[in-house]
């Protein structure tokens, strides 16, 4: 792959236009630093193994790579399908009008299940109604519609997390919290439409454990959950509503005894102090034939020296780049904005 400085700048600019989902550990702010690293590393195929919001997959696509995007949650795969796999399909004005119009059937799962918990009656009715149309769609277009619905729900919910149900307490009157979900959808459908482009390559989105992803990529970007000294890195606890919404809760086990009606969490060894180090070693081992780019926080376990040591078990050249980074973090007021060092490890 040959990326000139000009094309890197264009790629960064394009990635900054990516529809922005507030997601714990999202690397939106690291786009310029990551673009620099990917340009240095080169190659033509790339894996984003823990894709989350999908912004790094989209940056890689913008830089010209053939991208494989993976996450063990469902909604990151839907978003990566809409934005990275999708080279051409947009929602038409008629599609958007249909989704926002009268319902195609009388389904009411969301109205029944989440009454009084999230949003208002109109919003919940809209979600059921939108899904009555989305269920008739297929392929990339369906993914664009679901992505717009997911982003709408995330923006309409204070802080974008579903760890509490007394949302009035957090309503600071900002526009995102006062416009309807239907209005959100109209805006976000346009944003996802605008994100669609073709870089001349074919891309893949996968939903599964990182240890089930095939190997053989030129570059592998690893951005696992961090094992924090306190709290946890449970994505399902925060984003269960988005996960359920992305698949209309089909096949999902809602824990009925929970106040937030969350879905059971998925175990990952990366999120715990006891198991994180060995999980990282296994991930480095699995992808050791690729150039590795690894994100990790200084505010996590294991520390940077340990990660360098682990990478040296498999790679000859290991460098570390500390990056000052303001973090959106957690659900506690005191922890919402902390400055931490974000590390980028490059192993070739
Ligand atoms: C730090 S976030 C990635 C953020 C992403 N780079 C972004 O910019 O939005 C970590 C992601 O890893 C996913 N994850 C956790 N354990 C996993 C596993 N064992 N296999 C695949 N994905 C996993 C989580 O669902 C979460 O989306």
Short description:
With 348 residues, this protein is α/β, with parallel strands linked by helices. The protein has helices at 5-16, 31-41, 55-62, 74-85, 93-100, 109-114, 121-134, 139-156, 175-178, 181-195, 235-245, 273-286, 304-312, and strands at 45-48, 66-71, 204-207, 219-222, 291-297, 318-328, 337-347.
> What percentage of amino acids are in beta strands?
5-15%
What small molecules does this complex bind?
S-adenosylmethionine
> Order of SSEs, N→C?
HHEHEHHHHHHHEEHHEHEE
Distance between the termini: 16 Å
Rg to the nearest angstrom?
A: 20 Å
Task: Count the E strands.
Answer: 7
Helical percentage: 40-55%
Number of structural units classed as domains: 1
Provide an overview of this structure.
The chain has 348 residues and is α/β, with parallel strands linked by helices. It has one domain (1-274). 41% of the residues lie in helices and 14% in strands. It has 13 helices and 7 strands. The chain has helices at residues 5-16, 31-41, 55-62, 74-85, 93-100, 109-114, 121-134, 139-156, 175-178, 181-195, 235-245, 273-286, 304-312; strands at residues 45-48, 66-71, 204-207, 219-222, 291-297, 318-328, 337-347. Strand 6 (318-328) and strand 7 form a beta hairpin. Helix 4 (74-85) crosses helix 8 (139-156). The protein binds S-adenosylmethionine (SAM). The site of S-adenosylmethionine has 22 residues, from helix 3.
